[in-house]
């Protein structure tokens, strides 16, 4: 149990540091801003109570806001995603439910399930984030283009991380 908590804490620290020190400065043109830190919220275990998921999402956003100097923007968006996550997982639940001890990763749930789940979470995150940043529908189409481009790059990064760092647990 303690090793599980430490593993998730290490993942949070690594993803937030990667976001704040590397990806923050990796803006590719005016429309692409990758946000890999959302992977921490996405990969919380299925058994995570909703209140704890909200708290961890809030804390994740707070840490990212410190790097981006955007008081409350990422905190708000992460809390929103943390709130939606249980409902999205319920909608995507296999008929027999999730197996205890499994995590929402490509290795546990399969490629198509994970890509669908990640795409939904990432697009919702980016939609809320970018429209919250501009606080207007005046630049609707340029903001929508930014959502689509950034979501695609973020999804690609999430899939690369999944392939590089997560291996399927072998049956004993």
Question: Can you walk me through this structure?
Answer:
It is a single chain. It is built from seven helices and no strands. The chain is an all-alpha fold and 172 residues long. The protein is globular, with a radius of gyration of 16 Å. α4 (73-91) runs antiparallel to α6 (111-134) and α6 (111-134) packs antiparallel against α7.
Short description:
With 172 residues, the chain is mainly alpha-helical. It is built from seven helices and no strands.
Secondary structure elements and their pairing?
Elements: H1 2-22, H2 38-42, H3 50-68, H4 73-91, H5 106-109, H6 111-134, H7 140-165
**Radius of gyration, in angstroms, nearest whole number:** 16 Å
Largest sheet: none
Number of helices: 7
Distance between the termini: 20 Å
Q: How many E strands?
A: 0
Envelope shape:
globular
Order of helices and strands: HHHHHHH
Unreliable stretches, pLDDT < 50, 5 or more residues? none
Instruction: Look at the helices and sheets and give the structural class.
Output: mainly alpha
Report the mean per-residue pLDDT as an integer: 89
Helical coverage, percent range: 55-70%
Strand content: under 5%
Defining traits:
7 helices, mainly alpha, 69% helix
